[in-house]
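Let's study my pick:
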Amino acid sequence: MMETCGRYPFIARLLLITAVIGITACTEKAADKPQIGKGGTVRVAVTGRAQSLFPLDISDVTAKLISDYLLWPALVRIDEHGQPVPDLLKNWFVSEDGRSVTCFLDDSLQWSDGRPFTSKDVMFTWELIQGNSRFQQQFPQIENIARLEPSGLHACKFILTQPVNDPMTLLRFPVLPEHIYRAARSPADLQGIFGKNRTGIGPFLLQKTTEDSVKLIANRTNKKRTPNLDAILFRFARSGEQLSKMLLSGAADLAVDVPLDFATRLQGAGNYTLTSYPEKGYTFIAWNLTDALLGNIEIRRALDHAIDRQTLVDGVLAGFAGPVCRPLYE
């Protein structure tokens, strides 16, 4: 997370969660001290569509978040401080010249069918992405990888086209089980196999999808990564209003990215807990420099000084944001 102006530079996303998971209404005592145990199913309301969750070809933002964080982990992930840390790896080594990264896989991991996770899976997935332009659009960072070399059953070396500032961010792509998908000869074959075989390595496995929902069940194969919940049911709303109604009616235990006006109304309500957190993104105004008036830098400076960012944050956004002083780059 980058700090600017002494405030978070990201527009805060909103997370609205019932105080007692699985209960739509609770007593004041329960709301003060919610008890979070193990097991059970949490119903989550989100906006978007329950589209394809095949990890190499996802267009919906919400579906991609579900896939990346719950179903298909990458070799590395980004932690709460914005730094890359091992996920499917034990460790890595960057060469002195910055032109290669050797990755050491977590050899304790297994696929949900009991087969070991190996460098064959990493090689296979990288070759799939390299061989399909649509998959490459999903993971544009891999254009900086010239080739991938196996270095044993649980290690592989990425050869880069040139040194980059943070080479580990290049390795943020999901890994498919080679023994399940190797018979595929086309993207349609891959989708077909995915529809029938849900073998995975993430904390959850895909159990069922419908037009309006996705259900995940806990993956108990890797003991160190076993989640507390038994299942998560995502229910998709077409609008913010529908999402709000899902929560209020008891159809969901938790709602993500709730409308701002709805969030402000429920602040302090005894039955709900409202949580906001920094988001990696920002909203800005872009000036049309081809316009005769806006082409004048003095005019642009005057407009910039005239916009009261703090008033927008406090008034329009109810404090769920912070001023940004400069562009943010990954």
Summary: The CA atoms of residues 15 and 256 lie 5 Å apart. Residues 1-35 have pLDDT under 50 and may be disordered. The first strand starts at residue 13 and ends at 18. Residues 119-130 form the longest helix (12 residues).
